[in-house]
Amino acid sequence: MMLYRLTGTGASSAHFYYGNAELLPIAKTPPPRPPPLPVPLGVAIFPRDPGQPVRRFAERGFPNIVQWTEFDRGGHFAAMEQPNLLVGDLRSFVATLRS
User: Cα dihedral angle (97, 85, 57, 22), rounded to 10 degrees?
Assistant: First the structure.
């Protein structure tokens, strides 16, 4: 709160939530489910990331998951914590797109 107060950005940060209120789970009428995206998708899961994806839910919106990798170490900032693992996974994903 102090950062918002000192920088005068409280209103602009609240505007994000106001503008997206109809997408929140407590909205009076839930938004329609968007159509599935057929683009190839690669997912890298790091165990200490607080937002863990669930594959069966991911497949609803992304039916073309070509790579799903679960690592044994790393977290939300994987690019800083485990850069070699992340880069290796990205290279592997791109290789699947080329073949």
Answer: -100
CA–CA distances in Å: residue 18 to residues 27, 47, 49: 12, 32, 27
The position carrying tokens 């929140």 is 24
Tell me the whole-structure pTM to 2 decimals. Answer: 0.68
In this structure, the chain runs to a length of 99
Type of residue numbered 40: P
Q: Which residue has the tokens 């009076």?
A: 28
Look up residue 77 and give its DSSP letter.
Answer: T
> In sequence order, what are the residues at sequence separation of 6 or more whose Cβ sits closer than 8 angstroms to the Cβ of residue 61?
34, 36, 37
Residue 2: DSSP 8-state = H
Per-residue tokens: 9: 């950005």
Read off the pLDDT of residues 12-21 as tens digits, 9 standing for 90 and up. 888 888 888 7
Closest to 55 measured CA to CA, from 65, 75, 46, 47 = 65
d(CA 19, CA 22): 8
